[in-house]
Amino acid sequence: EQTNPVARAIDKVIDAVADDGAAGEIPGRPGAEPPSLAEPVEPREPLPPKPDQHGPDPLTATGQPSGETAESRAQGGPFLTTATGTRLPDTDHSLKAGPRGPTLLRDHHLREKITHFDHERIPERVVHARGAAAHGVFQAYGTAATISKAAFLAKDVRTPVFVRFSTVLGSRGSADTVRDTRGFATKFYTSEGIFDLVGNNIPVFFIQDAIKFPDVIHAGKPHPDREIPQAQSAHDTFWDFVSLHTEATHHTIWNMSDRGIPRSYRMMEGFGVHTFRLVAADGGTVLVKFHWKPKAGVHSLVWEEAQLLGGVDPDFHRRDLADAIEAGAHPQWELGVQIFPDTPEQTFEGIDLLDPTKIVPEELAPVQPIGLMTLNANPVNYFAETEQVAFHVGHLVPGIDVSDDPLLAGRLFSYLDTQLTRLGGPNFNQLPINRTHAPVNDMLRDGMHQTAVHAGAAPYRPNSLDGGCPFHAPDGYVEVPVPVEAAPRGRLSPASFDDHFSQARLFWLSLSPVEREHVIAAYTFELSKVYEQAIKERQLLVLARIDPVLCREVAAGLGLPAPDGAPEGDPAASPALSQVGRTWPTEGRIVGIVAGPDLDAVRTVRQAVLDGGMVPLIIAPTGGVLPGPGEPVTVQRTFAAARSVEFDAILVAGAPEPGADAQGARDAKAGVSGTVDPRVALLLNEAYRHAKPLGGWGEAREAFTAAGIPATAPGVVTGESAADVLEQVTGLLALHRVWERFPSALG
Ligand code: HDD
């Protein structure tokens, strides 16, 4: 019996294949009926729920029955009905006057079916339209219990959560791997009401005041005339804005770094960005910044991979999250807080805690873990859950309060407002995914899409007709009575908000040489896509304020002179900001195994990969089961479907077989392939260029040579023993990439 959950999931497939054999049966699906064009005529039993999925909690806000049953939700009821429950004998033909006659207006079923279909879409989110989500649980360590009275932060309390990850700029159907900020929004269904932590994977924001949100988003969205480019910042309006609006400099350099292209949602940090205020049971307060730290480590794609994935698998992050959960490899994050004294200045070590363009380096204020979140179930229905979930920074519980960060203030208005348009009215909190798990006793009544049937005569206060209910709650949510500064009213900001460059420089100085190279390449790529020369020149002036090397290298790439300018400030580096040079867990990483003729070696190494908690995917010329004696080995990726971008490392099990499919035969006939299929050569070549660990044994060297990979290249492990090769490759995987393969020109 396998203990590794990924292994268990894969074993199921293998067992199914191993059970094959009866004549006429479908390979891999013993007992299944052979395919047929005839429609089923008998109702089937309702399908059992899928083990990796669960829907929103079945609690209703009011306890009202809904007419909906588990069967109807699962489409498992025996007979088709209209929306009002009348059984239907036919839904394939509209009502006509004779078989060739005109369609009749009285056909209510036709109109109901088409009208409902016409209204299936709701407006996509104006930002963060593209997303993926999962259910899970948050378990508190109790370490925050002394600084916050929130019930869900008490030791060992387990709170259901729903997390939605997203990109910001793209439309709902855009690619996952674009260069962008990622949303990281968590809904905690606590016993005291809902707490939403609506953060990003970047700890700072483009603007310091919410009033500029429409400006930054209009600049980042596609151009208004042709609606291009989709889901990216590499265009004139974005760079026009950020080069003029220099408070965006810090967020922009994070976007241009590896953080803008995460490897997976599972491997991203999350940040609450703003400073929040925690309130203890005795009324004491501290200021905090929230951090999510992924157990799987912080990893990124390289830019070429991200671009390839846009075409090869635009759903890469969405699929990765769902697959991991389905396989039982449940992603986890530790929630932590940086804690600052709640002083009247609201600064820490000279850093303004109300300025959302600033971080507090972890070296100055360590992140203190307060609980663990595990995502353990996929949504059952994308629309009902992931699309209809409505987050709001104002959803707070006693023990957590907001600060006066002016960006947060505007958000407190915006999130409620946007749901009215997006979800069609003020009752969106009654949607199953948005329902609180705490008892609701409000006096909000009526409105579009009201699903509660409220009893009671007096939804107002004070009343006597309902016995005075509901009463004020003595332990209810109270805003912290922070004194308000006596100062003249005005459209103002503090002087500290004028520092736009020192922390962009801090970030740059904290990166390793290879990460700095990526930043240079990203600015160069993006600005190369800008048509207006003046915008590029202006952005170079901004870069000169960050660092002369950054400015010089980007200018060289653009073919422009580097302007003079001195960097601002001399901040100390924060090593915690770099993703390179640390070792990370290898569990859940994807290892491609290009199968060779020695099936025993393939079986052994596949098992060893599983035992190491990683996910092996067997790559072979064609699908099905590898030909040969012994326990069957199922192929997961054919040469036609395997692209390097899917794998974190690739192993070559001896000389791979040439492609036996139509493409392979055509290439062989045309003399394109040598002994190694060109698709295998491309696979290895790309993985090599993307600094991924490679390993092989037996005649594997032939494949590496065909891919143009030098024999002595770092991170290319060859040997006679598959076990030794795998051990070394796993060691390399813990470092994520083999960066020393491409020594940095920056030193
Ligand atoms: Fe926002 C959605 C994160 C500033 C207005 N935002 C949205 C989502 C995330 C964030 C993760 C997607 C939630 C989901 O999955 O449904 N937003 C942030 C962060 C910000 C930020 C971390 C700065 C620190 N946002 C911000 C400002 C405004 C908005 C300043 C407006 C003044 N955000 C919205 C919105 C959205 C939204 C228009 C779109 C859909 C939605 O709210 O429900 O109201």
Helix/strand layout:
Elements: H1 5-18, H2 70-73, H3 108-118, E1 131-140, E2 158-167, E3 182-190, E4 193-200, H4 213-220, H5 236-244, H6 249-256, E5 270-271, E6 276-279, E7 285-294, H7 303-312, H8 316-326, E8 332-341, E9 347-348, E10 351-352, E11 368-377, H9 382-387, E12 400-402, H10 406-422, H11 502-510, H12 513-528, H13 533-546, H14 548-558, E13 590-594, H15 599-611, E14 615-620, E15 637-638, E16 649-653, H16 662-670, H17 678-689, E17 694-697, H18 700-706, E18 716-719, H19 722-733
Parallel strand pairs: 13-14, 13-16, 14-15, 16-17, 17-18
Antiparallel strand pairs: 1-2, 1-11, 2-3, 3-4, 5-7, 6-7, 6-12, 7-8, 8-11, 9-10
Helix pairs in contact: 4-5, 5-13, 6-11, 12-14, 13-14
CIS-heme D hydroxychlorin gamma-spirolactone is lined by residues 125-128, 131, 164, 166, 183, 185, 198-200, 205, 210, 213, 273, 356, 389-391, 407, 410-411, 414-415, 418.
- CATH homologous superfamily grouping of the domain at 131-272 and 292-332 and 370-434: Catalase core domain
CA gyration radius, whole angstroms: 29 Å
Known CATH architecture of the domain at 131-272 and 292-332 and 370-434: Beta Barrel
Structural class: alpha/beta
Largest sheet: 10 strands, antiparallel
Number of helices: 19
CATH topology of the domain at 131-272 and 292-332 and 370-434: Catalase HpII,  Chain A, domain 1
Uncertain runs are: 13-22, 60-65
Describe, in short, the structure shown.
The chain is α/β, with parallel strands linked by helices.
